[in-house]
Design brief:
The chain is built from 17 helices and eight strands. By secondary structure, the protein is α/β, with parallel strands linked by helices. The relative contact order is 0.11. It binds adenosine-5'-triphosphate and magnesium ion.
Length: 390
Amino acid sequence: MQAVKEALHVATVPSSGLICRDDEQSRVLEFCKACVEQERAGGLYVCGCPGTGKTLAINMVKESVKRWANDMGMETPDALSINCTSLANTHEIFSKILATLQPRKKATGKLPPLQQLQTMFSHKESAPRRMLLVVVDEMDYLITRDRAVLHDLFLLTTYQFSRCILIGIANAIDLAYRFLPKLESLNCKPLVVTFRAYSKDQISDIIKHRLKVIEYDVFEPMALEFCARKVAAASGDMRKALGVCRSAVEVFEARLHESSDQEFGVVTFDHMDIALSKAFKSAVVDSILCLPQHQQMVLCALANTFHHCKKKATTLGELNKSYIEICRSTQVPAVGMLEFSNMCMVLSDQGFMKLGQSKEDKLRIVMLKIDISDINFAFKAFDFYWIKPS
Ligand SMILES: Nc1ncnc2c1ncn2[C@@H]1O[C@H](COP(=O)(O)OP(=O)(O)OP(=O)(O)O)[C@@H](O)[C@H]1O
Ligand SMILES: [Mg+2]
């Protein structure tokens, strides 16, 4: 289990490489290759929500550029990665670039590093021979704190003899639009590559891919699916998904410890459920748990109905059958059709579902308006066993 936790650790670089980011990676790679080939400077801005693989993908691109240049018999570009949150002050970014360009030269107090760079890139004689790939991660820090530094940084790519390929990485998509027009007016608008949040299928593929180093199936397929769906619906943050999976492994280990009869086993839906409940406390889940019992049973009936079929709509009549089934299995007397239909209207008013129009009540279309995993989650985590696992 230690190896499993290792494979799922956020600091572990997946040994089998990166999946689901081929398109974004190839756009960045092509951009860098073109700059290296034509010996010209350029700026690129990568943005996207947390945990969408930006840092990982760009680090891999950086290595690919070096490998490619080497394979092509070109001079390998220098490369420098800077994380803005670890800068002592924002201007330190320029001294780091300067130090990479002049590794043997001691910093002289003559001119500030930024001016030295500007001078260097303005004259053919002083221009560096090699290209320099600079990856500036967590750039939000500069966007909010020191716009001037940010502009100066991108402006470095516009000097006639500049050799800088600048890749800025940040979360802020909206902030980007606030600073991009300014860069555009300065004639150094970077190419923008956006990393979209991971979908449910991508999250589950990535976890499976990372677990390929383990020789057996660690997670019950349903458990993985539940985690992927929940995280995708909430944020699409891979870091969160990995954290929840690790936490589910810990729940599994704790259970194993308590009952020594079980030697081997897999991480199940229930383990994942507990891990998810620790990680998420959704407002939707809370409001489901506050509903009267019969309304909760209607939502469960709806979740059970959609569990079997891919389509996300049913009729009031069908839903009523599923509700009666739950009532029977839990020995709770069911309410009549009129009251049932009123309950559904209340749930619809509260935004849990949507009710279509029809002359006949039983034929009204019902659609779920909340995430099915929230219903599963609400009832599974609190020991309501009328729900079929999704
Ligand atoms: N496609 C992927 N394949 C394997 N692991 C991935 C993938 N995408 C992300 N991860 C993992 O998810 C975690 C978060 O990824 P990463 O740090 O690259 O995100 P980020 O977009 O840079 O986030 P932030 O904006 O918070 O800096 C890392 O542990 C990384 O290894
Ligand atoms: Mg990052």
